What we know:
Strand 6, helix 5 and strand 7 form a beta-alpha-beta unit. The strands form two sheets. Strands 3-2-1-4-5-6-7 form a seven-stranded parallel beta sheet, with helices on both faces. A six-stranded parallel beta sheet has the order 10-9-8-11-12-13, sandwiched between helices. By secondary structure, it is α/β, with parallel strands linked by helices. The longest helix has 18 residues, at 63-80. The mean pLDDT is 91. It has two domains: 2-173 and 350-364, 3-Layer(aba) Sandwich (Rossmann fold), CATH 3.40.50; 177-347, Glycogen Phosphorylase B (Rossmann fold, 3-Layer(aba) Sandwich), CATH 3.40.50. The chain is 39% helix and 16% strand. It is globular, with a radius of gyration of 21 Å. It contains 13 helices and 13 strands.
Amino acid sequence: MKFLLVSPFTDASGSSVRFWNIAESLRDRGHTVVYIDRRSRAGNRLHRSSDIRYYSCSSCGIVPLDILFSCFFNMVLFLRYRDSDVFYALKPAPNNCSVALLARLCGKKIICDVDDLDWAYLKPGAARTILHKLFDFFPRLFHLVTFHTPNLHDYLLQTARVPESRLYYLAQGISPAFLEELPERGASEETAELLYVATLGITSDFEDLIPALRTFFSSHSGVRMDIAGDGTRRGEFERRIAEAGIASNVRFVGIIDHRELPAFVAAHRIGINYMRDSEVNRCRAILKIREYLACGLEVVCNDVGDAALFDGYIHIEPTISALFATVETLLSNPPHRNTEARAFIGTKYRWSDIVGAFCERVEQQ
Length: 365
């Protein structure tokens, strides 16, 4: 089959990592893949493949204009690749779903991947209301809607009113690079004990951790923490860390090239993940927990999203203070590779297996 995958966003998000992994797995199974997204101002860094035709729409930074131009861009490329069998849209967004409807009229199979409640990140107002209505409306028009958590299933079924027969569980897998042989972890002046990987944009709840970090580092001044990722709020977080007096303990390393990320993660000891308990976060699959475990890290997080899937391999705490108390306990013990968790991830979350079952479902459509 020939797949046309269309993302409404840039590659600076976990959603884009998910979609690109799907694209590569489809290619590995012998399918033809064309991939379209929007170009970030930093330049796209994730998408490199000689076997996938890749197109990136320019962005001016003005959201309404970007949506309109992206919609036109996607339309032109659909017409160019109108011999595609499947139009796969990442997220129910207007700049890809409007083109998907044309693809349906042309007799194509159309699929939408819903991996987040994107409207919930906007402040209350007209923009949020409009996006919410479109978010609930568009999935009903697709032949198949993929999701990756039980709470997303319930939302799509009960709120968006997508028929059960059109819903398909497509698990959140792990990039193959994380399952390759990892380098030995060695002591280095450049290596911090703690790691926090996240998109530091509107979806980030990192500010909730800053008071606890200040308390923690006041009694553990020799411990250091790396924060990997970038986003619109990074400058704000750097300023607040400096105001808390812990800038010498916390290093913002920015975006790590995806090819280098496994080795970077593996060089640390403890991976931390935190999200507020909210409707939108309860619907999220936590890619970072999967990546931490695939690299053999000890993981400490709160009980939000799909963290419970990894119970027995990670430390799930009810509060931020309990989270850092567990970090303190782990640091007082000898470090070890979380080998059982790494084996679990390799067994349950390989994209090749996940996409293989997905292709069988698409062929039945």
